[in-house]
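User: Some background: our group keeps a shared notebook of sequences we're curious about, and every so often someone picks one and asks for a predicted structure to add to the entry. Today it's my turn. The entry only has the sequence so far, pasted here. Could you supply the structure so I can complete it?
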Amino acid sequence: MPSTTLPGCYGARNLVAIRASRLNADGTRICPNEDGSAYTVGGQISFDVRRNTVGGNTDVLNNGNGGVCNTDTTPQIVTGINGTLTLCVFDFQMIELLTGARLLVDGGIGYGFEEADPQDDPPLIEFHWWIKMWDGASQAPTPYTYMQSVAVATQWRLGDQTFGENALTVPLLFTGKANENIVIGTFDDIPLDVQGDGFTAGWATDTVPDPNVAPYSDNGLTCGYVDSPACSAS
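Assistant: Of course. Here's the predicted structure to add to the notebook entry:
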């Protein structure tokens, strides 16, 4: 284990932004790719990641008098991830990009979506999220003001919904796996140290992408499609 120092032991608050980018079936980047990504600031409520595990069992051998003779416990092994993204807006373009739904368009304006054909394989998605790093009663100092995280290869579907009184939410469910072809990511912002043989990674950063600055300013909104930029060398 390398010898390192810590900038501080920071807490975490708030889900600030999310970004999704389409990948090739083998996990490699598609860049440039017009409308190949989606970015949301303000339309996200929550995002959770759960680990799928096997093992973690304890084998017990009892002696002839009913006592414990010996035991052995196997470790839990993480085989993949799953979880839920909950939106407070109908971001039709984000929904289309994540799930492969059909975007309904009139005069160049996306006005709805049709749920993906259940026989179609969902697209492979590189998914990022940003949270605030927190130090006591305020945000952590530069350059550790945010934590950016990535799930390197995910596949999505619409979640179950209940319609009734008061505000409604839009849930999207995902599963995820490793991706050793992710390299530095579609937007060239994954550290070179990330190998892709795990399922997620997270690192301290100083900024969250500004929706008013290229390439995030493609649509002039704080949600929906943005163009995946040209890949730099990895």
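Suggested note for the entry: The two ends are 25 Å apart (CA to CA). The chain is about 5% helix and 45% strand.
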